[in-house]
């Protein structure tokens, strides 16, 4: 399924580009939560983070701090959130990996978050299961 980000990457829809290289595009969000709200997307068309190639993931990792520094300098913000959702149940609206850099404005603009911490249950067994999955994937 073609997404709005695929159309932006193809040049079919304009955007306010702030950064681009062979693997990553960053542009201003058209429905910003605050001044400077920027999206950083891989050029690799994958819906969720775990589907990205290691190369695309590494390029996103290199671009995010660079773009965040520029957004902070350009907007004068002193705080920001980086948000990335995977799957509709996790509030992902566009099924193409994307990261939001959302400056927190002195006027209260930006991302609002509700956080309800729970208690860890069977932490040793869960950690062992995750470690086993990582080991299996490293061997594949």
Give your account of this protein's structure.
There is one protein chain. The protein is α+β, with helices and mostly antiparallel strands and 140 residues long. The protein has a single domain (4-112), classed as HIT family, subunit A (2-Layer Sandwich), CATH 3.30.428.10. Helices cover 32% and strands 16% of the residues. The chain is built from 3 helices and 5 strands; from the N terminus they run αβββαββα. It has helices at residues 4-9, 54-75, 123-139; strands spanning 17-20, 24-28, 38-42, 80-83, 99-103. β1 (17-20) and β2 (24-28) form a beta hairpin. The chain is globular, with a radius of gyration of 17 Å. It starts with a helix and ends with a helix.
Highlighted features:
140 residues; alpha+beta; HIT family, subunit A; five-stranded antiparallel beta sheet; 5 strands
């Amino acid at each position: 399924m073609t997404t709005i980000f695929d159309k932006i990457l193809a040049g079919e829809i304009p955007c306010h580009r702030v950064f681009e290289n062979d693997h990553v595009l960053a542009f201003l969000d058209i429905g910003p939560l605050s001044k400077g709200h920027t999206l950083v997307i891989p050029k690799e068309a994958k819906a969720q983070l775990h589907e990205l190639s290691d190369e695309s993931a590494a390029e996103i990792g290199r671009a995010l701090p660079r773009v965040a520094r520029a957004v902070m300098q350009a907007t004068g913000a002193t705080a920001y959130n980086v948000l990335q959702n995977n799957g509709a149940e996790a509030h992902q609206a566009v099924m193409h990996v994307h990261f939001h850099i959302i400056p927190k404005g002195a006027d209260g603009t930006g991302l609002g978050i509700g956080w309800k911490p729970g208690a860890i249950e069977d932490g040793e067994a869960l950690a062992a299961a995750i470690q086993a999955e990582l080991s299996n994937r490293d061997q594949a």
